[in-house]
Write a structure and sequence with these properties.
The complex is a heterodimer.
Chain A (H helix, E strand, L loop, with lengths): L1 E2 L4 E2 L13 E2 L11 E8 L5 E3 L5 E3 L5 E6 L2 E2 L4 E4 L5 E4 L5 E8 L7 E10 L30 E6 L6 H14 L4 E5 L7 H9 L3 E4 L13 H18 L3 E9 L3 H8 L1 H4 L2 E5 L3 H13 L4 E5 L6 H11 L6 H11 L9
Parallel strand pairs in A: 2-7, 7-11, 13-16, 13-17, 14-15, 14-16, 17-18
Antiparallel strand pairs in A: 1-3, 3-12, 4-7, 4-12, 5-6, 8-9, 9-11, 10-11, 10-12
Helix pairs in contact in A: 1-2, 1-8, 6-7
Chain B lengths: L1 E7 L14 E7 L2 E4 L2 E4 L2 E5 L13 E2 L13 H30 L6 E5 L12 E4 L17 E4 L5 E2 L9 E2 L6 H14 L21 H15 L38 H21 L6 H11 L6 H7 L3 H11 L4 H10 L8 H12 L4 E2 L16 E2 L2
Parallel strand pairs in B: 1-6, 5-7, 7-9
Antiparallel strand pairs in B: 1-2, 3-4, 4-5, 8-9, 10-11, 12-13
Classes of the chains: A alpha/beta, B alpha/beta.
C-alpha cells in the first residue's frame, strides 16, 4: 500500500470526500468505467496540465502520480478514446479521464502517456469508483400528481465547439439577472470542470453534472442510464431550489447518445435552444429536432458572431437567432414563457 | 362608474424594504371599456397593446382582476390574463389620481393623456420601466408618432422582485403594477403642460424634444412621493439598493447641489437633488401647519413655462434650479421663508446657475463651519456624499 501525499488529484475526483484516507491498492479485478485509478506520467503530451477539483491547472511532469477515473472520450476535435484494462493508458481529458486514445484530430498532439499503477482504494483496501459517491436517488413516494418542475430548457448543438456552453451561460445569466435562481446540468460529456465553472461564473446557484451521478464521462454508458440520469439531474436541481434550469447535452445532434437523449426531451423540458456555427447547420438541426417533436425555442451559438449569418439562419429556420448577450439581456426570461398553441 | 382592483399606497409603507407595491383594494373608477384591452376616463386612455380581450369575462360594472404576482413568463395563461387586466385597472386608477390632483390645483384639466402598455414589447427585450413621449426624435425611436398631447409607454417587465419576507413568492415587476412608475410618468405629463422644461411649446408640434432635464425628473419624483405618501418612492422594486445609493432615489436623504454631476445623462440622479429639496420644503410647510407645497409648485411651474420666446434661450434658462425656485417663492409668499430655508439647506438658492450652486455647496461642505455626520446615520439629516452644514 502506498500513501498518496504527492499525487495530483484530478477534477473527476471532486466527489471523493476523504482523499486523505485513500490508498493505492493492488490490481486485482478488471477495471470498469468510473473506477478510480492511480497512474504515473511517463510522457507529457497534449495535456501539459491537469485540472484539479477546484479548477486549478497543475503543471504535469514526467514521474508525477495522477489520480483519475476510467472512462471513454468522444471528441471530434480532440480524441476518440476508450477504457481498456491494461497497464498503459492516456490522459483523455485535462479533468482526469483515463483511457486509451485510438484516434485524434490532425491538429491535436499525441496524448499524455500514463502507467496505471493500480486502483484507488479506501482505508480498508476496497477499490473505489465514482459510483460510490453518486448522489443518492430520493425515495420515490407514490404520488397522485407528480411535483411541479421548474421550467427547463435544453441546449443542444450541431457539433462540438458550436457554442453550447456559452449559450447555456447566456441563459443562466439572463435568468439570474431577472432575479431567478438558476440551475444548470451538464448531462453528457467528458470529465472536466470547464463547463461547470462557466455555469457558476454566469450565476448558476445550483450545478450538477454526470460526475455527481457516478460517471467520469458519459460516452459508452447504456442509453437507459443516461436517460434516467437526465431526469434525475433536473429533479435534483429542482429539489436544490432552482427556479429555472438549463440542461446542456454535449457534442452534436448526430452523436448517438445525444440523439437518444434529444428524443426524450419533450418529456423533460419546454424546448431546446440550438447552438450552431452556420445557417445550414441551423436548418438541419431544426429539422432533426422537429422530427422528434422537440420545440426549438431559438437558435444561438457561434453563428451569432456574424450578423449576416444570423439573418441567414433566421430566414432558413423562421426562428429567432439570439446571441448569448441577448439571452443574458432578457431573452432568456422570455424563453421560459409557456407557448400558447396557435388556434 | 366601475369597480376595479388597484394597489393603495398611502401609509402602507413603514419599513426600509416595502413588502409590496401596495395594499390590494377595490376602488371605484369613472371609466368605460372602449376596447378589448382599453379603458377610457376623462382626460385619460389606458390600453394594453399585447393583444387579447382582457375585459371579455368581466362583470358589467366590476373588473376585479387579481394581480397574480405580476404574471410574467413563469405564469400560466390565466395568471397572465389576470395580471395584465390588473395592470390596466391599476394604471388607470393611479394615473387618474395624479391627473385629478393636478386639475384641481391648476383649476383646469390637462390635455388628454394616452398610456400604452407594451408598445415596445419585443420578444427577448423585456423592459421594466416607462417613459413619456411626444412627437419628435426619441431614443429608442418610436415606430409611430405619439399623441401630440403626450403619451406614456410602460414596459411589460423583465425581472422578478424577491419579496423581503421569507415564504413570500416572487413578484414579476410589471411597471403597470407599480404605482411609483405610473405616477412618475404622469408627473412628466404635468411638467410638459406647465413648466415645459424643454420649451416644446416654442417648437413645431411634430418636432418636440423628448429629453428630460433634472428639474423634470425631480419634479416627477416629488409628485410621486406626495401621491404615494412616502419619500422612498422606489423602495419596493429597488429595495436591494441601499438607501444612501443615488439609484434608490430616496427623497428623505438630504441630497444637496454638491452632489450634482456635471454633463449629460444624469437627469435622474441630479433630479433627486431637486426632488429631495422639494420634499424637505413640503414636510416643513406641513409641520408648520400648512398643506404642503404642491399647489404653489404647480402655480410656479405654470408661470415658469409661460415666459420667453426663444427656444435655445428658454431651454438654457429652464434647466436651472434657481429659476424655478424664484417662481416657487413668488407663488405663495406665506410659505416662502420656509421654502427658501429648506431649499438653501440643499444648496438651492434663488440665484445662480446649477454649476455655481454646486461649487458654492462644495465650498460650504469643505469649510470649517461644516460638520460631517457620524458614519451610519440614516436619518433625514444625512447628507449623502457631502458634509452636513449647521443650520
Amino acid at each position: 500500500m502506498k500513501e498518496l501525499f504527492t499525487a495530483k488529484w484530478s477534477h473527476v475526483t471532486r466527489t471523493v470526500p476523504d482523499a486523505g484516507q485513500c490508498r493505492l491498492g493492488v490490481p486485482s479485478v478488471p477495471r470498469r468505467l468510473g473506477d478510480l485509478v492511480v497512474t504515473q506520467v511517463t510522457k507529457v503530451g497534449a495535456h501539459e496540465h491537469l485540472e484539479d477539483a477546484h479548477g486549478r491547472r497543475l503543471k504535469l511532469h514526467r514521474g508525477d502520480l495522477l489520480v483519475g477515473a476510467c472512462g471513454n472520450r468522444y471528441a471530434t476535435d480532440v480524441y476518440e478514446g476508450y477504457h481498456r484494462h491494461g497497464p498503459k493508458a492516456h490522459l483523455l481529458t485535462a479533468g482526469g479521464v483515463i483511457g486509451v486514445a485510438v484516434s485524434w484530430h490532425t491538429g491535436c498532439p499525441p496524448p499524455t502517456e500514463l502507467d496505471v499503477l493500480g486502483p484507488l482504494t479506501d482505508g480498508h483496501g476496497r477499490p473505489l469508483s465514482l459510483e460510490h459517491f453518486a448522489r443518492p436517488r430520493p425515495p420515490s413516494k407514490p404520488q397522485s400528481q407528480p411535483p411541479a418542475q421548474p421550467p427547463t430548457v435544453a441546449v443542444v448543438g450541431s457539433s462540438m465547439n458550436s457554442g453550447k456552453t456559452t449559450t447555456a451561460a447566456g441563459l443562466i445569466s439572463g435568468w439570474t439577472r431577472a432575479g431567478l435562481v438558476a440551475g444548470a446540468a451538464k448531462v453528457t460529456g467528458s470529465g472536466s470542470g470547464k463547463d461547470r465553472w462557466a455555469y457558476i461564473d454566469a450565476g448558476a446557484r445550483h450545478v450538477v453534472d454526470f460526475l455527481d451521478f457516478g460517471m467520469s464521462s458519459t460516452f459508452g454508458y447504456p442509453p437507459e442510464r443516461l436517460l434516467r440520469t437526465m431526469g434525475a439531474m433536473r429533479d435534483a436541481l429542482g429539489r436544490d431550489g432552482a427556479e429555472a434550469i438549463v440542461l446542456e447535452i454535449a457534442d452534436g445532434l448526430l452523436q448517438e447518445e445525444s440523439r437518444r437523449l434529444v428524443g426524450q426531451l419533450p418529456a423533460i423540458c419546454r424546448g431546446a435552444v440550438l447552438a450552431v456555427g452556420d445557417a445550414l447547420a441551423a436548418r438541419a438541426g431544426v429539422d432533426l429536432l422537429d422530427a422528434v417533436a422537440v420545440p426549438v425555442l431559438a437558435v444561438s451559438g457561434l453563428i451569432t458572431a456574424s450578423p449576416l449569418a444570423s439573418r441567414e439562419a433566421e430566414a432558413a429556420t423562421g426562428l429567432p437567432v439570439l446571441s448569448p448577450s441577448q439571452l443574458a439581456g432578457g431573452a432568456a426570461v422570455d424563453l421560459l414563457a409557456e407557448r400558447i398553441p396557435a388556434t | 362608474m366601475m369597480r376595479v382592483t388597484a394597489y393603495l399606497t398611502r401609509h402602507h409603507i413603514d419599513s426600509d424594504r416595502p413588502a409590496g407595491p401596495g395594499q390590494l383594494a377595490e376602488v371605484d373608477l369613472d371609466a368605460t371599456v372602449t376596447g378589448p384591452a382599453e379603458l377610457r376616463l376623462a382626460g385619460l386612455t389606458v390600453r394594453d397593446e399585447r393583444g387579447g380581450d382582457l375585459f371579455r369575462a368581466a362583470g358589467e360594472h366590476a373588473y376585479l382582476f387579481d394581480p397574480a404576482e405580476g404574471g410574467g413568463p413563469l405564469a400560466g395563461t390565466e395568471d397572465q390574463y389576470q395580471a395584465r387586466g390588473f395592470g390596466v385597472t391599476n394604471t388607470a386608477y393611479h394615473a387618474a389620481r395624479v391627473l385629478n390632483l393636478a386639475a384641481r390645483l391648476l383649476d383646469r384639466p390637462l390635455p388628454h393623456l394616452v398610456i400604452r402598455i407594451g408598445p415596445h414589447s419585443v420578444p427577448g427585450r423585456g423592459w421594466g420601466g416607462g417613459h413619456y413621449r411626444l412627437p419628435g426624435e426619441a431614443s429608442p425611436p418610436e415606430p409611430e408618432p405619439p399623441a401630440r398631447s403626450g403619451e406614456i409607454h410602460l414596459g411589460t417587465g423583465r425581472s422578478f422582485i424577491e419579496r423581503p419576507d421569507p415564504g413570500c413568492s416572487r413578484y414579476f415587476h410589471a411597471p403597470a403594477h407599480n404605482p411609483a412608475i405610473i405616477c412618475h410618468e404622469v408627473g412628466h405629463h404635468i411638467c410638459h403642460h406647465t413648466a415645459d422644461f424643454r420649451a416644446n411649446r416654442l417648437r413645431p408640434p411634430l418636432d418636440q424634444h423628448n429629453g428630460k432635464v433634472a428639474l423634470d425628473e425631480g419634479t416627477a419624483d416629488f409628485l410621486t412621493a406626495v401621491l404615494l405618501g412616502t419619500p422612498d418612492i422606489y423602495g419596493w422594486h429597488r429595495g436591494r439598493i441601499p438607501p444612501w445609493d443615488p439609484r434608490r432615489r430616496r427623497l428623505d436623504a438630504r441630497w444637496t447641489t454638491a452632489c450634482l454631476c456635471p454633463g449629460g445623462g444624469r437627469a435622474h440622479t441630479n433630479g433627486t437633488v431637486w426632488a429631495s429639496a422639494l420634499w424637505t420644503a413640503h414636510e416643513r410647510v406641513r409641520q408648520a401647519g400648512g398643506t404642503g407645497i404642491v399647489s404653489a409648485l404647480l402655480t410656479a411651474m405654470t408661470r415658469f413655462g409661460s415666459r420667453g420666446a426663444d427656444v435655445a434661450k428658454e431651454q438654457q434658462r429652464r434647466k436651472h434650479f434657481s429659476e424655478l425656485l424664484r417662481d416657487l417663492l413668488v407663488a405663495d409668499p406665506a410659505i416662502a421663508p420656509v421654502v427658501a430655508g429648506a431649499m438653501a439647506d440643499h444648496g438651492i438658492l434663488p440665484y445662480g446657475r446649477n454649476r455655481e450652486l454646486r461649487w458654492q455647496m462644495q465650498a460650504r461642505a469643505g469649510s470649517p463651519d461644516a460638520q460631517t455626520p457620524a458614519r451610519g446615520t440614516s436619518e433625514a439629516g444625512q447628507w449623502p456624499g457631502t458634509a452636513a452644514v449647521r443650520p
